[in-house]
Amino acid sequence: MGPAEPISPRSSRVAAARRLARRNFRVKERRFIAEGPQAVREAALHRGGGEPTLTELFATAEAADRHAGIIEAARDAGARVHTAGDDVVADLSQTVTPQGLVGVCRFLDQPFDEILAARPRLVAVLANVRDPGNAGTVLRCADAAGADAVVLTDASVDLYNPKAVRASVGSLFHLPVAVGVPVEQAVQGLQKAGVRIVAADGAGERDLDTELDEGVLGRPTAWIFGNEAWGLPEETRALADTVVRVPIHGKAESLNLATAAAVCLYASARAQRAAGGCRSVTPS
Fold first, then answer.
1. Residue 73 belongs to what H/E stretch?
2. Helix axes 12-19, 86-93, angle to 10 degrees
């Protein structure tokens, strides 16, 4: 059965959702937009602080028929579901090829202290990462590698930027994220929690292969990833326990941020799951 409540493009609810494209309105309302079936499905299943994350869903009639299970999950979560025209959904999604589903979600970031209290073993720290697509992709890589949390420093892009949410492809709803944490506070807190701080930098004095060979990546580890253009400043590298470069065996000048993050996080994931690592190995 398709969603009820057909909605007009001039509805105040559409106008309120449209305003969430702007950061100041997102912050004021503590709401953001998630679009597409994957993100909306994960939002419908997510609970933050005991409350459903998805509060409202706009769906075209065609998308509602095609994704009836998502519509049902949204209703089960208590979200208000609206039938919307293609023009409304296209306007809200801000993409070239809208997928027919746009959800309004509550903010879901967690206090940094809660992340530390959970004793994380693998963390990605985004320091001065400004491109929302890169931020979302690194979050997706962290999720895929089984990281326990992601931390965005106060100098990084808005987690709820629509491009960042799209690039995470639903991973935003899978793991704890803290935002607006000064990099010094992030490093000191993680170190006190027994986490080794590794800065990823092309000019690092240590090689990722060496880290793997010596077995040190099996310990609880937080990777710091820097700005897309200029990497990590010296003062941030100085905070880390070590600075590690990804070896370039071919002729490429460097790796982009998301690719380097995936390589580093998977190196830690493999080491932590090996014999002697900080994660127990269980049968699949």
1. helix 68-76
2. 20
For helices 132-144 and 257-273, the axis angle rounded to 10 degrees is: 20
Contacting residues for 221 by C-beta, under 8 A, at least 6 apart: 121, 122, 123, 195, 196, 197, 198, 268, 272
Spatial neighbors of 193 by CB under 8 A, at least 6 apart, are 116, 119, 120, 220
pTM (2 decimals)? 0.91
Q: What amino acid occupies position 63?
A: A
Residues in the chain: 284
Task: Provide the strand spans (E) within 5-67.
Answer: 31-35, 47-48, 51-52, 54-59
Do 91 and 62 meet the contact criterion of CB atoms below 8 Å apart?
Answer: no
Tokens standing for 235?
Answer: 């003062």
Q: Report the candidate in 15, 4, 25 with the shortest Cα–Cα distance to residue 88.
A: 15
Own/partner long-range contacts of 66-72 (Cβ < 8 Å, ≥24 apart): 66/100, 67/37, 67/41, 67/100, 67/101, 68/1, 68/2, 69/41, 70/37, 70/40, 70/41, 70/44, 70/101, 71/2, 71/3
Residue with tokens 């701080």: 197
Q: How confident is the model at residue 2 (pLDDT cuts 50, 70, 90)?
A: very low
Q: Could you report the per-residue pLDDT of 9-55, keeping only the tens digit for each? A: 888 999 999 999 999 999 999 999 999 999 999 999 999 878 899 99
Using CA atoms, how far apart are residues 120 and 273, in angstroms rounded to an integer? Answer: 14
For residues 57-62, average pLDDT: 95
Mean pLDDT is lowest, of 178-182, 183-187, 226-230, 240-244, for 226-230
